[in-house]
Amino acid sequence: MRIELTRERLPELISMVAAIEQHDRAPFRTLPSELEDYFDSSMEMESLGLVVDGVLAGYGVVRVPRDGGPLRCSGGTHPDFRGYGLGRQVIQFFDTSAKKLARGNPNAIMEIHVDEGRDSLIDLLQRAEFEPSGGYVQLRRDLAEPRSEVELPGFYQLHTWADVMDTEIGRTYREQLVELSDALESQFFVPEWSFIVVDAKSDRAKLAAYILSHKYQQDWSAFGWSEGYTEELVVLPDYRGLHLATVLLNAAADIYQESGMEYAGLDISVDMEGESPMLDLFTHFGYEPVRNTTLYTKPVYPGGEVS
């Protein structure tokens, strides 16, 4: 039976997603609060529940991102109900729901992230004419390894975000950061693990670079290690070439280690061949690849023809 997912089904959805991630050895764990976000009334979405013998056996969700990017698809089938065609129903739901949400936009795209080792899902997606379109590489840096020290240039200052966030100057920087990133608004953001570098050469110090850290503790059991996660590392254009990225990565690594973390982690975007100039850069900093996630995409209206 096909139903629309509602908040009343949230406990079943939480249980099913946990079973899926455990069975598929997913490199992450989804929090109940993240699934509850599916029912955020401010988010435009379509949802599907597949019920077999009164049990929620599969689900699909297509969401319209707030940034106006590709429609985001997610879903899965309970391990106990695989082999009955439920996965195909979820993929078909992506197609029909994306058309409804795209509202005739001939350039609309839908996307789904697939972790390595999900061969059955990849086969389903390829049969439905989804194609690989880049992805991400998860990297980690062993915090027990020595780090190359780099001094901060003169007239530049390094601040922990936790120390300045409630000050007048911190509120000014916050306005600038919020324009550049939504990482500060996340439930996983850790102010004590995040840093800014300011240019103090003039009376009005300017933001030069920043590193924002998150803590995804729910994922550590799947990883097999603990880590501080670098959500964003940005050096503003006027300040590149001053080794500020190295200063920030080292500062974050130091506080991660002081907090008992084993690794520093981050993800970088790669092209269809799995390449990125950032890969060599972070390898130089002592990071090593751990696993890959591939982004599969499909035009909502193949050929741009809206029917």
TrEMBL record:
Signal peptide start and end residues: none
Molecular-function GO terms, alphabetical? acyltransferase activity, transferring groups other than amino-acyl groups
The cross-references to CDD domains, in alphabetical order and at most eight, read: NAT_SF
Keyword field: Acyltransferase, Transferase
Q: Where is the N-acetyltransferase domain?
A: 4-153, 156-301
InterPro entries found in the cross-reference section:
Acyl_CoA_acyltransferase, GNAT_dom, N-term/lysine_N-AcTrnsfr
What protein name is recorded for this chain? GNAT family N-acetyltransferase
Annotated source species? Flaviflexus ciconiae
